[in-house]
Amino acid sequence: GDSGDEKQDSSWNNCDFETNLCKVFPEFNLQPGWIRRNGQSGMGPPYSDPNGNESAYFLSLSSEMQSSSAALRTNVFLPTDEEHLCQIKFHYWISQVGGTFMVGLQKHSEDTVTSIWQVSGDLRNQWNVNTITINSTEKYEVIFSGMVETQRQGETVAIDDITFSEGC
Questions:
Q1: How many Å apart are CA 39 and CA 33, to the nearest integer?
Q2: Which of 7-11, 13-17, 24-28, 159-163 has the lowest mean pLDDT?
Q3: What confidence category does residue 54 fall into, taking pLDDT thresholds of 50, 70 and 90?
Q4: What domains can be seen in the chain, in order of their start residue?
Q5: Which of 29, 46, 68, 131 is in Cβ range 3.0-4.6 Å of 150 for a Cys bridge?
């Protein structure tokens, strides 16, 4: 009656990791490898979020941890159409040498993950931002994957502020 159920939940569109509640990632608390932390954690870079806030949270994968790779998988999204493409904007951090960050797409009918964007090391230890557009004729999931070389000390991959357009 009050249209309250029609209103979109703003926490769905933006995932800033300030809380453990991030509706787009159903297994957020179960993802091995990713650590929800902030710049004050004493775990090395990054020492702040993309906005320079040392107490704001982000997800990070570090070479000091047991797992050298980790994935973050979204809920299943419905097919896109020409008027409603899915755009995903995110901030990422990769250490200078041994880090890789990838965004993949897994269509509902396929078992494999197709890489749609990837970047590796040599980014001068700073936050970067990227926007990807997804056009899929069938249901799909988006997978954010990080990988670090565990032999190198201080290698980090981090992600923050993932925003999904209404077409997702």
A1: 18
A2: 7-11
A3: very high
A4: 14-164 (2.60.120.200)
A5: 68
